[in-house]
């Protein structure tokens, strides 16, 4: 009887110890192929019964064309400019690389559509001043450098050119057009070395004038 009591006590002690143990944590190993940051579906260790992981398919050209067709405006890019894709998170509705003049670098051109006045013309011009290291200036000084033009479809546009020095030969230059539209403002902005931006001047104005509402 005494031996049976000792055996019962031992069994109860083991049961109590088991109840106090922490639940076991299961881990699963994800194997990444060399040189990539994405898991390959055929080398991922998943728990039994887990559905396979599918890698998202990249957007194709048809999707990009469909996105372009949904935009409220259209334009005609200069033939020598390279049309760049627009990322999902980009504020741009148009993006271009402008070929470099010999001995300089390429320039970048963007088309952005923002709601309302988007801060106003003066605030935006002073923001561009800061981007190329120019001081903030008063409205009267800014208005001296504004060039009003009209697009081929009748939209009123204002063009401004900002150079990082007085003669525009050194540093970056910004040439931008501001176009008020219904419920928003279009900004066409060309940024790059002075020589490249100057050489692209006629193409830039042609692009701005070609912008039209669909």
Tell me, briefly, the overall form: globular
For this structure, the quaternary state is single chain
Our count of helices gives 6
Radius of gyration: 31 Å
| Uncertain segments | 22-66
Order of helices and strands: HHEEEEHHEEEEHHE
| Total domain modules | 2
Name given to the CATH architecture of the largest domain: Sandwich
Structural class: alpha+beta
Determine the fraction of residues in helical runs and give it as a percent range. 25-40%
- The strand order across the widest sheet is 2-3-4-8-7-6-5
Q: What's the number of extended β-strand segments?
A: 9
Calculate the mean pLDDT score and round it: 75
CATH topology of the largest domain: Jelly Rolls
The percent range for strand residues is 25-35%
CATH class of the largest domain: Mainly Beta
**Major pleated sheet:** 7 strands, antiparallel
| Cα-to-Cα separation, first versus last residue | 98 Å
Please explain how this structure is put together:
The N and C termini lie far apart (98 Å). It is built from 6 helices and 9 strands, in the order ααββββααββββααβ. With 214 residues, it is α+β, with helices and mostly antiparallel strands. The chain has 2 domains: 2-43, no CATH class; 73-213, Jelly Rolls (Sandwich). A 7-stranded antiparallel beta sheet has the order 2-3-4-8-7-6-5, sandwiched between helices. The protein has a two-stranded antiparallel ribbon with strand order 1-9. Residues 22-66 have low confidence and may be disordered.
